[in-house]
Amino acid sequence: MIIRPHYLNQLKTYRDVPLVKILAGIRRCGKSTILEMLRDDLIKSGIPEDHVVCMRYTSEDFDRGMTDKDMYDGIKEKMTDDRRYYLLLDEVQEVAGWEKAVNSLLENRNTDIYVTGSNSKLMSGEISTYLTGRYVSISVFPLSFSEYMDFKRESGRTPRDLLNEYIRMGGFPIVALGNFDENAAYQIVEGIYHSVITSDITKRHNITNYDLFNRVVKYIVENVGKTFSANTIVKFLKSEGRSLSVEAVYNYLEWLEKAFVVYRCQRYDLQGKTVLKTQEKFYLADPSLKYCVMGFQPQDVAAMLENIVYFELRRKGYEVYIGKNETKEIDFTAVRRDERIYVQVCRNLPEQSDREVANLLAIKDHYPKYVVTLDELAAGNINGVKIVALEHFLLAEDY
Prior knowledge:
By secondary structure, this protein is α/β, with parallel strands linked by helices.
């Protein structure tokens, strides 16, 4: 098992804190394996093995009609004394009313509870009812480039070769663990994609016009890294002779978010210091989700570089926005507590550097400013703007 210390360290921070730890992310991003890592770490730290209770609710051993009482009783029967038990509950959203069971278990002060889930049922309104102020949510993403290198450390390839592969193949652990060509990798990801779209969205929300829904999804996938609105999608569909309401598009976008397929990036007005509600961008949980739907096209790489940088900033704990500075756009304004950085992403230098640097220099403050590029020889400083090669930006511990 290849350890993902980023997540294990977060879980250690909250160990024995009376909160439910919820690990949430797209299917097959590694949540179950993180629970296995946690189990091993708990036992290694001296917790008796029979006091680490692991329950997986996607197994065929479990009845899909399991109730919250069944769930509660099944766990309680494993708790045979008054010592602390560590409950590791995988894919809990398959149990109707799981929040009630977990809340009851949390009432027992001798429990420390960790749960995972991969769709909107995990983040439903019932959490607010039963676990208000008593849970912490940890976003789990597919592999970062640093993690990808750990998975491939026996390959003997250079960081640059691995970066090129990472950009094309994405970061789903099941792909990184194998030695697949692109076609095989995209087939695997396509299976994940259809599982999410079918099980977590269309069935749950009773979408009857699957073809129209799929066209909206395809539009979003095609336009990763571009600003658009629900109205934009409605107008586009109208040009194709299709009809869909703005409200329906908003619902589709929300459901895709709750299934962790896409992540919304809002615009931030640097002058007015306000978050804008229009012309947002959406990024895919993994670049391979675009390639499995659309096929790999070299012209898509620029947008995917932006996608990769967005998630690296998220992994490092930043809230990430598109920066609007009067008429200029900054790819990312990233905020973490009282820290802030500005990032422009471009494929090549020096052709694009003038515009990217000029946009950053127009911001009249002293926070760090970066141009991140695929140019592996990039390194420098232009009037305080740091030029950084993508692989170095992704592997930096912090900025």
